[in-house]
C-alpha cells in the first residue's frame, strides 16, 4: 500500500518528535553564552525588526501545545469523562502551570538576608517540591500511602517557601508576565476551553483564533482591552498573542485528526495553510515589526507558518513512511515535555551554587566550543529526562 494511502495510527509520532525537537532547541538556545555565538542563533532585541533561531523555539512549542489539545480531549472522552470533568481538568492544569510559572518567575527576586536562604537554594527546593507534588507515581497500591506522603511534603514545602519569601524591594510575589509556564498555561486554557466548549467545531476554533489575532493587532496599535481589577491578571489573554499561537496549533491538530485517512489531502492543506500564514506574517510586517519580546502578530504568524512547514516532512517520513532512526530521543522527550524542560534547571542551580566548572565551554573567545558545548548539553538533557522517567520521576499535570 502506498504510504500516502495508509491510515496513520491514532498516536501521531511526528507530534512527539517535533515537540521533543523543539525542547532540544529550547534547551540549546537557553544555554548559549551570547557573547560567543552568532546573532542569528539568539533573540533579537525588543525593538529590532528581525528574528533569530531563539525567537522561534518558544512559539514552536506553544504551537505543539495547541496541536495536542484535540487528541488529549478525545483520549479523555474515550475513557468516559464528561465535558464538565474535562473542563475541571483543564482548569486544574492551567492553575498548576500558572502557580509554578509565577513561583519560578519570582525566584531570582529572593533576598538572601530577608528570606534566610539564597535564591538558588529557594529555587532548588521549589523544583524538588514541584516534582514531589506533580510527579506521576507508579500505581503500586502498597506504596500509595508513601506517595501521598511525598505529595503532602511537597505541598507543605511550597507553603513554607511562600511564607519565608521576601524580595529586596519589600514586595511579595509578583505576577509579572507569568513566566514561561504561566504563558503556556494561559494559551492552553484558551485553546482547550474553546475546543471543548465548542465540541470540536473547527469553525468556532478558527473564529476564536481570529478574535485573538485581532486582539493582538489592536494591542500592538495601543487599543488595549481593559477589565478593571482583573486586567493585570488577564493581560496574556487580552494581548491575544499567546492564545493566537496555541489556537493555530489546535486548528492544525483538528485537521490532522479529520483527514488522518487521507494523507494526501492533509499534506496539501498543511502546505497551503503554512504558506498562507508565512505570507500573511510578512504582509503584516509592513505595520508590525517582527518582535518576540513585544509579541507582534507578524512574528506570531511567521512562527506558526514555520511550524507547519516543519511538521510536513516530519509527518511524511515518520508517520507515513515509518522512519525511526535517531528519532527515539526526541520522541521520548516530547512525551515527557515538562520534565525535559524543568529538570535541567536543578543541575544549573547545583553547579552555580557550588561553583562547579561544568560549563567551561561558555567562552566568548571560542565560538565553536560555546555552540558545540550547548548542543551537547541540550542532547544530554534529553537523555537525562528519559533516565528520570525510567526511575519513575516525571511530571504529569
UniProtKB/TrEMBL annotation:
Keyword Zinc-finger: no
Sequence intervals crossing the membrane: 21-41, 53-73, 85-105, 117-137, 149-165, 177-197, 202-221, 233-253, 265-287, 299-318, 338-360, 366-387
Record bears the keyword Flavoprotein: no
Keywords: Membrane, Transmembrane, Transmembrane helix
Protein name stated in the entry: DUF5009 domain-containing protein
